[in-house]
Each structure stands twice: as structure tokens, then as C-alpha cells.
Amino acid sequence: SNTIPDVFAVLKSKEHHQLWPSALAALRKTGGNLKNVVPFQTAVLLDEEEWPDVRVSAMKALVAGVSDCPEAPGLLRRCLLDEKSLVRLTAARELWKLDARADEVLPTLTALLGHNLISIRTGALNAISEVGRAARPIRSEVARLISDTNESVRQAAVATLTRIAGQSNAAPDSANQPVQPTGVSRSAEEPTGTPSAAGSRR
């Protein structure tokens, strides 16, 4: 079959980096050898000169193949200290999906609440919402964004506080819709407000 060679080609093409996570997941399902692509994805992730959105795609791909990449959690923890805000944000979010402790990811997410980019502040709120009740220690920091200058951030802050209180299952980026009280879920949604074309390299 030409399917696996095609998947390998995608996984080694930065032009198709947004397809990396799904391509790597598909490769796992078809029994492909991830040893041929994990080193490439790892190198991209750790390349501080690479565009942040490309590095984030590599990070998500490694998480998608985490059973074949046991070093992935350690790489994510290393990325919590990265210079690029989008990389730090995604590392915290992906670590939480891998059942990291809240106190591992909350310091990074709390710091990002003060970022100058609206997309990063909103992304941090989305991630904190996923942490749910375990994010109660930073409730006051989230509450400050209720008075943010941007409406979408204000809405996200309100929705996040609701999730922290355990009153809603709605994601922050759905804050403009009616809140229906439900249980707290750890289900994760991908950030919808990343900087265009990787935005800033900060």
C-alpha cells in the first residue's frame, strides 16, 4: 500500500505540519514504525529557531504517539520553560491531557494570563478551564481578566470561573452561549486563538 509511505512523507514535511498529529495517530493504527519519524518530530520541537506553530504541531504529534515516544512527557516539561509563549501554553495543555498534576501546569498557565496577545490569554483560560476544579488556587488570577480590555477574553474568564467552580461543562471559547449546568469534565479542546502564521515568536 502507498498509504504508509504517504504518511511518512507528510510527517517529514513542514509544509504539512498541521497534519502531523493526525498523521502520526494514523500511522500508529496501521502499525507503522514510528522510529522513523519520532527523531524528526523531536528535533523540530526542540529547534528554538523554528516557528512556534510548527513546533506545536511536532509536540502534538509526539503526544499522539506517546506510547512509542516515552520521552514525550519529559519533553513537554522541558517546553514549559521555553522562550515561546505558544510552546509553553501547548506544553501545559498537552501535559494535562497526559494526566500531569495541576501544580505542574498551573504556574505556566497563570503567567500566560498576563500575556500581551489576546490569543495567548484566551488560550491560557481555555487550558485552565480544562483543569477545572483543580485550578481553584488561581481563581483570583482568572477573575482579574473579567475586566480585560478584550471582550472575548472577558467572556472566556467568566466561563473559566464557572468551570473552576464545577458548575458547567462549557468551554471558555463558548462563553457567548448560554451556560448549562453540568458536571465537570477533563475533556480537552484545542486552542482556537493561536496567533496567525505563528504570530509572534515570543
Describe the structure.
This protein has 202 residues and is mainly alpha-helical. It is 52% helix and 0% strand. It is built from 10 helices and no strands. The longest helix is centred in the middle third of the chain and has 14 residues, at 118-131. The termini are far apart.
Distance between the termini: 42 Å
Number of helix segments? 10
The outline comes out as elongated
**Helix/strand order, N-terminal first:** HHHHHHHHHH
The SS-based structural class is: mainly alpha
Q: What is the typical, i.e. mean, pLDDT?
A: 82
Q: Could you give the count of β-strands?
A: 0
Rounded Rg: 17 Å
Q: What is the percentage of strand-forming residues? A: under 5%
Extract low-pLDDT stretches.
169-202
| Helical coverage, percent range | 40-55%
Largest sheet: none
